[in-house]
Amino acid sequence: MELLSSPPPPLPPSSPCSRPGKATLQKYFHAGATRKSRRLKEANRRATCRAAEIHSTEQAKCREPLRRGTVSPRLPVPDHIPRPPYDGTDRLPDVNPDRQMHDSKSIVHMRAACELAARVLQYAGTLVKPSVTTDEIDRAVHQMIVDAGAYPSPLGYGGFPKSVCTSVNECICHGIPDSRVLQDGDIINIDVTVYLNGYHGDTSRTYLCGEVDEPSKQLVKVTEECMLRGISACKHGASFKTIGERISENVNKYGYSVDPFVGHGVGTIFHSEPIIWHT
Which residues fall in a compositionally biased region of kind Pro residues (predicted)? Predict the structure, then answer.
């Protein structure tokens, strides 16, 4: 009964709970319990965040900051392979305001593009090991894509000089492959997009390189869980915010935060509406 050690403030006469007796006591006790519950939840959240912060700091002490390597020249694409509209210009296209609605015919093309992207990504993941450079991964990905008669979508997009995005450690996304060798304990996100028969297939995954510390393993595990939770929210009639809610619920349990990047529509256009927030 410590919640009632100080009497509640008087309620105005018009209040439905202003009459004396049990109703007033129950309402005040419930309000006090709710406040205490919120304080406990907030304290737990802060403790979890602090633990994650300490893990992150300890991890940073053990690993040298990411340094830019040498970026090799852009790889050629055979002339017979169809190019996306942005090829040949370094101007970054705006996100297209139109929503791409797919019919049965376009879904067939989307399946083919996404299936190729998935195979390329799976192959790229087998190359992740200490002493391999991200430039070597780019070369292998580029060759596999053009051998399949497709165009590597990132190449030339807004001046991007490579055929795949390789984001190592603290590089959040869209990292440029270069001469830096992967080291034991790195994590690397490989983002593969292919342009096949006029349609983009877009996918990515984070891989562990060698022996990775537990905080990094947990980060990758929780991130994958968030992706699957977001996917599970996708169905006809669902609101976009449900996707972010599912992700945020899981993120908050571990004291992580979500960077303000977004998902996007994909199809004949690389990036289009709808913009999907992850939080």
Answer: 1-15
pTM equals 0.77
Residue spans of the domains in the chain: they are 63-277
Mean pLDDT, residues 2-17? 37
Give the total residue count for the chain.
279
Separation CA 96–CA 94 (nearest Å): 6
pLDDT at 90: 87
Joined together, the tokens standing for residue 227 give 């992706």
Cα–Cα distance for residue pair 38/245, rounded to 1 Å: 19
Nearest of 171, 172, 179, 195 to residue 137 by alpha carbon = 179
Residues 128 and 115 sit within 8 Å (Cβ to Cβ): no
Residues 199-223: b if buried by 16+ CB within 10 A, e if exposed: bbbbbbbbbbbeebbebbeebbeeb
Q: Which residues make beta-bridge pairs with 277?
A: 262
CA distance 279 to 262: 9
- CATH annotation of 63-277: 3.90.230.10
Output the six-digit token pair for 264.
Answer: 């996007």
Angle at CA of residue 224, ends 223 and 230, nearest 5°: 90
Per-residue DSSP letter, 166: E
110-117 average pLDDT score:
98
